[in-house]
Amino acid sequence: MTGAGLLFRLFLRRDRLLLPGWTGLITLLVIGTAVQYAGLFPTADLQRAFLTEVTGNAALSAFTGQAHGSGLAALTGWKISDIAYALTSLMAILITVRHTRAEEESGRAELLGAGVLGRHAVLAAALLLTWTAALGTGLLVTVGLLIMGFALVNAVAFGLAVAAPGLVFAALAALTAQLTPRARTATALAATGFGLAYLLRFLADGSGVRWLRWFSPTGWSHLLEPTGDPRWAVLLLPLTATVLLTALAANLVSRRDLGAGVLPTRTGPAVAAAGLSSAFGLAWRLHRGQLLGWTAGFAVAGAATAAVAKGMPEIAGRGGPAIQEFFRRYAASPDAGIADTYLWLIMLSLGGVAALYPMLVTLRLRGEEADGRAELTLSTTVGRTRWALSHLAFALLGTASMLLAGGLTAATVHTLSTSDGAQFGRVLLGALVQVPAAWTIGAVAVLAFGFLPRAAAAISWTVWLLVNLVGEQLGPVLGVDYWLANQIVPFHHIPKVLSGGEFATVPLLALTAVTLLLAGSGLLGLRRRDLG
């Protein structure tokens, strides 16, 4: 552990802008939601009436989790808690991998290890930083909720519920960082764990099989019931998981070589494969694992979420005006069915996640450049534009293939459950219209890579978070009208073909044109700037 304190201060200095951004965003969402709902439901009678509608309603609980307790605390927890838990989890994964496996992959860990540095110092400093960020976020949330007038027990429980997933997923990311020599793979493995946890929680609340939450780290925060009568014993689950995962990660640090992963790395063939003779073949080799994994994940998610669509009309019908308004907000026609609107919400969710893929492919270009591998490739007859386009082709085609896979499985499951063959084409089309909107997010990353390569990652993640949060969450919190906030969200400009809207090519062509404009500008910037 020698040198862990020094490394902690170094990591803290490197993340002096990143950490306040994450903690500030999560705190703003929670406190802003409390302020928003205090204005919407100023009296106890209004709060009680709204909670009566949403409590126990699986149609909404699938997206938000269960409502617990009463008053403003219950409203705030029902609206924003699941998003806060998810953001804390993502923050923990990204920061932990950044300071563990990414440090080894770049060679900085070896340089630091040449001094007086213990074997476990890097892992300890990275986890300490991530846990501090998670607990600090929970503390800020607690203080903000106390200022809002929440009861002390509920404010503290809410803060701990926000921090707990960060502790668990930081430890999980520390473990995956020991398994593979690549930071991208370690992040993907940890993110897969988070995705499974979220899917389990979603299915548990959406289908009524609530015991599934006991197998989800984010579900544990819901089981704590921070806005009701907190079940403090539930906190033993994230604490135990954190200790066990951390101990396993520390054990693996002692058993592996610096820079290597525990999982064996396959050696390449003695003779290069024929496909590697081109830039496209090299790009396929680099992206195929991630592309196949994402496509399979979307296929599973599409099937799982569509399985409960048939029962949504009955479930939602038990609610009152607030629940009907929730579904009408996403419907293009007042005659749209609840099941169709639910499926449209699922497709929007898949589209928002799919927008991550072209963004990550573009950031892989930046990684190739920063590590010097791009310079080696460009020393051959391959030019910059062809090199970049070989990767961006997978950003475009990969996004389409993932949404196609999710649409196919969702359409198949929904068609079988309803015995209506006409549903297959509608659901599949609902998935495919998401593609141009997802491309637009990736094009912003290309633009940033072309002109501001060192800030490309920060810009890309910021844009993705804003697109996924500004319309429904940050817009009302910041006092921006819902309609106005959604004008900057590409997904709100596509035809709502599943919820009463007519298919139209104009918005899809417009989004594709914006994608080409942004990506083309980014490629022009890449051609004109220095590498590195």
List the helices and strands and how they pair.
Elements: H1 4-14, H2 18-40, H3 44-54, H4 58-64, H5 71-99, H6 101-106, H7 108-113, H8 121-147, H9 152-179, H10 183-207, H11 217-223, H12 236-255, H13 279-306, H14 312-317, H15 321-328, H16 338-354, H17 356-370, H18 373-378, H19 384-418, H20 422-432, H21 435-451, H22 456-477, H23 482-485, H24 505-528
Helix pairs in contact: 1-8, 2-5, 2-8, 2-22, 3-5, 4-10, 5-8, 5-9, 5-10, 8-9, 9-10, 9-11, 9-12, 10-13, 13-16, 13-19, 16-19, 17-19, 17-21, 17-22, 19-20, 19-21, 21-22, 21-24
What would your notes on this structure say?
With 532 residues, this protein is an all-alpha fold. Helix content is 74%, strand content 0%. The chain has helices spanning 4-14, 18-40, 44-54, 58-64, 71-99, 101-106, 108-113, 121-147, 152-179, 183-207, 217-223, 236-255, 279-306, 312-317, 321-328, 338-354, 356-370, 373-378, 384-418, 422-432, 435-451, 456-477, 482-485, 505-528. The protein starts with a helix and ends with a helix.
Summarize the structure.
The chain is mainly alpha-helical and about 525 residues long. About 75% of the residues lie in helices and about 0% in strands. The model has no long low-confidence stretch (mean pLDDT about 85).
N- and C-termini, Cα separation: 34 Å
> What ranges have pLDDT less than 50 throughout 5 or more consecutive residues?
none
Q: How would a crystallographer describe the biggest sheet?
A: none
Average pLDDT over all residues: 84
What characteristic shape results from the CA principal axes? globular
Beta-strand percentage range: under 5%
Q: Taking Cα atoms only, what radius of gyration do you get, to the nearest Å?
A: 23 Å
**Estimated structural class:** mainly alpha
Number of strand elements: 0
Percent range of helical residues: over 70%
Number of distinct helices: 24
Order of helices and strands: HHHHHHHHHHHHHHHHHHHHHHHH
